[in-house]
Structures are given as structure tokens and as C-alpha cells.
Amino acid sequence: MSSLDSYKTQLLEQAAQVGALKFGNFTLKSGRKSPYFFNAGLMSDGTILHTVAQAYAATLCAAASDDDTMVNPFSDFDILFGPAYKGISLAACTALVLASVYGRDVKFAYDRKEAKDHGEGGSVVGWPSNRNEKWRVVIVDDVMTTGLAASSAIKLVAQQGGEVVGVVQLLDREEFSEIDEQGCKVSSVMKLESLLGGKGKVRSVLKMRDLVQWLEEKEAQGQTTEEEKKSLQAMREYRDTYGVSSP
């Protein structure tokens, strides 16, 4: 088993330290009992925001360099769009790292929950003034549950005259959200990729498999707590029940 990328390990360790990643028994909005919970809203200090931004930027640039030339929406885009509210800081920090570390200078925009009727007005902030340009947009999401936030952002970008070419999210839980007419398990990521035109349109910094591998590596090194040992087995069982395969 290969080790996780260093930025993934660093992110998971810091997320656990600030309480953004928790193990135990949690009831999700879907009603499912989950052995882990990820709350991106608790990643609110400079240290972990820097780590998160580096992880998003690394994921975007890795996606841009993939050999698969048939689906490569991340090699050329103009705007990072952060849906209010969590997505705002995530997109802003990621744009900064893309420019300072990778030399990729992209614009950053976000929406308001309520449209502004004075000043520049409107419901979108940071959108380029040249509205005749067909801007290519990547949406920055945190943890996708139903995909509603990203779907709403896609509609909003279209209203601005832009085109969403991809979505990058912090965590893919890799679980199905519904069963289709053919009896196949369908996840929110699958539905969103279908909306965007095909596989590879949604990329994730972390996946559930990464959390499992992180705990397994800690266990092999004798570094897991009793709670983490119990959660590791529970996560394997949860994956067997609700999991879907993803690239």
C-alpha cells in the first residue's frame, strides 16, 4: 500500500486537531449513522487554512496534468467560484496559492445570499467586468452531501454568462445518495458529473478511502487511539453498506 500524499496526511492531522474531523457515531441529514464527521467550518485558523488552500491547489494542478486528455477541465480555467458562505474563504485562499506557488493567476468570485441594490449591486462579487467573455469557471465546494450548493452555483454562473467546467471539493464521502431505475447506486458526485457533461468533472482533495488509509497507516505504526481503532472497523463496514466506487 502506497503512502498518502504528504498534503493529505497534513490536512487530516490538522483537521483532527481542530475538531473538524471527528470519529464516533453521528447522524447525518440523510438519517444514516456515520462513524465519522467532517465539519469544514471549524477549519478557521491561519495554519489550517494555509494547509487547505495548498491541498486544493495541489489537487487542481494534479488534475490539470493528468494524462487523460479526453476529460481535463482543470488545465484551463479563468475563475474560482466560492459559493457563500464556506466556499468564499476556500476559493480566495486557493487562488492565492495557485498564483504564489504554481504561477497560475486566476480570478476569484463569490455570491451573496441576498442581492445588493446599491454600489456595484447584484448577487455576485468579483465577476470580471467584461461580461461578453465566456469565462470558464471551477467551483470550490467543501463536503458534498446532496450536491445542491454546487448545482445552485452552476445555475448562478450560467446567469452571469459563464461556463462551469469543473468542481473541486474537499471531501468525497464515496457513498450513494439514491438507487436509480436500473437498481444501480448513484452518488451526488455522479449526478453532478452527469450535469456537467461527464466523468472527471468533479475532483476531490480527500476521499473516504484516504481517511481509511490514514487510520490504517496510523494503526500499523501503533499510533491509533482506541476510539480510532473502533472507528476504522466501523468505517470499513459503513463503506461496504453505502459505498460507491470512484476513480
Describe this structure in words.
It contains seven helices and ten strands. The protein is an alpha/beta fold and 247 residues long. It has a six-stranded mixed beta sheet, with helices on both faces. Strands 1-2 form a two-stranded antiparallel sheet. Helix 3 links the parallel strand 3 and strand 4. The chain is globular and about 55 Å long.
In spatial order, strands of the major sheet run 5-4-3-6-7-10
Gyration radius from CA atoms, angstroms: 18 Å
Number of strands: 10
- How much beta, percentage-wise? 15-25%
**Helicity range of the residues?**
40-55%
Low-confidence stretches: none
Through-space gap between termini: 17 Å
Q: Helix tally?
A: 7
What class, by secondary structure content?
Answer: alpha/beta
Helix and strand run: HEEHEHEEEHEEEHEHH
> Given the C-alpha coordinates, what overall shape results?
globular
Q: Name the average pLDDT.
A: 89
Largest sheet: 6 strands, mixed
